[in-house]
């Protein structure tokens, strides 16, 4: 079997099953595990998959710049934002993560909301500036330009002193076994402390990021309270998350 044929089988298996195990696949297509591992390295180098111990997952498509992502999956982000806003209550302390979906949430909060919102995203902070009864806490630090968020020691220290009622977490990759993961190590540390210091955590995720992986783990799936996704997300894709006790939320239409 040609390399191209094997790699096509690998990608088709990942899209169908959400993961592959190298040992199992080597038996199915009758080649050595070493051959499968070489194919996985090639596909990982091409940015198509995320290798994990013993196999691989699909890689998240979240590689565009912040400016480019503002124009991607627009209707899905609006739908997720509408569902997310239903969790917000007066007098809460809310961590609003960076990202274009959280920016959409910031634009759709009730104008009479009385709350404290903590964010490390300058665009989110600016979007909240016109709300008369929202206290905005802008976390400083080093600006990670592609994501438009602050990271680093100053941001970590600031978040360590905050205990939130709710965290709205932007998600690059979500997998029922790998959990929440992200391509940038320093950003993973910030997201980790957001999760640790929040009573409830809502993961905001479009369908194309479900079942994918990235190099740096933020949190296990068990740390999530809610997954908020778009209305047409297939039930069979969401079932592994619901089976772990996570509440799945979609916009009510």
* Helical percentage: 25-40%
CATH architecture of the largest domain: 3-Layer(aba) Sandwich
Number of helices: 10
User: Would you tell me which CATH topology of the largest domain applies?
Assistant: Rossmann fold
The radius of gyration is: 19 Å
- Ranges with pLDDT <50 over ≥5 residues? none
At the first level of CATH, the class of the largest domain is Alpha Beta
Overall mean pLDDT: 89
Q: Sheet with the most strands?
A: 7 strands, parallel
Strand order of the largest sheet: 6-5-4-9-12-15-16
Task: Tell how many strands the DSSP assignment holds.
Answer: 16
How many distinct folded domains? 2
Structural class: alpha/beta
Strand content: 25-35%
Order of SSEs, N→C?
HEHHEEHHEHEHEEEHEEEHEEEEHE
User: How many angstroms separate the termini?
Assistant: 48 Å
Shape: elongated
Describe this structure in words.
- The protein has ten helices and 16 strands.
- By secondary structure, it is an alpha/beta fold.
- It has two domains: 57 residues, Winged helix-like DNA-binding domain superfamily/Winged helix DNA-binding domain (Arc Repressor Mutant, subunit A, Orthogonal Bundle); 184 residues, Rossmann fold (3-Layer(aba) Sandwich), CATH 3.40.50.
- Strands 6-5-4-9-12-15-16 form a seven-stranded parallel beta sheet, with helices on both faces. Strands 1, 2, 3 and 13 form a four-stranded mixed beta sheet that branches. The protein has a three-stranded antiparallel beta sheet with strand order 10-11-14.
- Strand 2 and strand 3 form a beta hairpin.
- The longest helix has 15 residues.
- The mean pLDDT is 89.
